[in-house]
Write a structure and sequence with these properties.
Helices cover 24% and strands 25% of the residues. The chain is an alpha+beta fold.
Amino acid sequence: NINPTHINTSSNTPSFPKKLNQYPTQQEGINHLPPSNALKIGFLNINGLYTSNEDRMLEVLDFITKNNIDIFGLAETNINWNYGETYKKQQKKLRRLTNDYKAQLITSDTNIPWNRQFKPGGTALIINSKVASHVSNKESDYPLGRWSLIDLQHKNTKICICSAYIVGNTKICPTKHYTAAYQQWQILSKNDNNNHPRDQAIQDLIQMLKQKIKKGYEIILMLDANDTIKTYKGIISNIQHTCHLRIVESKNQKHLNSYNRGNTQIDFFMVTPFIHKYISSFIIQSFDYICHSDH
């Protein structure tokens, strides 16, 4: 679990950073308490919103409500958002349980036809009404469903906030036709693209980030990279080099394991330098802190 990140600002409502001539001074590491007007952001690879005996969305919404989270990103939702009234029911649940009837749910999955609710892959963003009132754009990476994002605009500040899931370097074969990687491969191969879905996702994510930055957007990227910071020329170092994003980390929690079937950190918050200056607190919670998950 990575939650929450607090972005400090001198404004009261909404709590977005302002473009200033001088950055505020940031202490070494990010581990001090956030101010009351901070924008609170959380992220979790939930490894499926539903199981046979569990509705994890209920636990996520309980965490959001109790901790006054403004934005919460989800990776690997493993749900077919277009199955029946799935999206409509989740949106209604979000608004009812948070008592926020302008809260929004921004989702993504592939456009591969699917005849049941369980569908590997996918992402989501949950935003409250304070944030929703400043959304100028929403995107779902159609038809590949690898990230969900919103663009926010408040006065002269523009921020792109993205929740992304990059598939692992899994072998593409018919026996694994149910995986998110295979779904993406099906879509790519129709366009004579022979790249592995992971390689293509990395290229496309970096291209999207560079375009946003070129348009003047600050970036907040929540990412399940299926990769570590230590990988030579891996996705994290690639994003750092090409997009100049910085990894958000606590002084006392550097490079902790974020995947309980591994021993390294593969989930990250990455932001542009301007945003990094305003982060007042960052915490990586223990496994199963919000709900049962392998992240």
